[in-house]
Amino acid sequence: MAVYGIGLILDLIEEISRRQAGPNDPILRKLLEEGSKEGKDWTKTAFPLPPRFKTKRKASAYSKRYGKAFKRLAPKYKKKSGAWKKDGFKRCAAAARRVAKK
Fold first, then answer.
1. How far is CA 30 from CA 38, 43, 48, 51, 76, in A?
2. pLDDT number for residue 56
3. CB-based contact 96:76 (threshold 8 Å)
């Protein structure tokens, strides 16, 4: 029996649980054959999974106000170099929350 890397074993376990396949599944046999070859990313080459379509969430009115307020206030809490001052990010976020709350 060929010796597999721990990463390959973990990927195989994930693939099995994802597909919920039985032990005689031809897909798993094919994955084992592909995985035994060194340096091959068998999860993508053997049988690519269909992309998962996820709808984007709609940004709330509050999050839009907060984002705009944060960007407007950020320069006040930054140095000339563009780095944050001490506790600048925390204080800017708190100020932006206060502005967005109104």
1. 15, 11, 13, 21, 59
2. 76
3. no
Average pLDDT of the chain, as a whole number: 77
Burial of 41 (0-12, 13-18, 19+ CB in 10 A): exposed
C-alpha to C-alpha distances, 90 to 11, 62, 66, 69, nearest whole angstrom: 39, 18, 14, 14
Q: How far is CA 52 from the centre of its chain?
A: 13
pTM of the model: 0.47
From residue 100, alpha-carbon distances to 46, 74, 94 in Å are 50, 14, 10
Query: What H or E segment, with its residue span, contains residue 97?
Result: helix 88-101
Asked whether 32 and 12 are in contact (CB, 8 A), the reply is yes
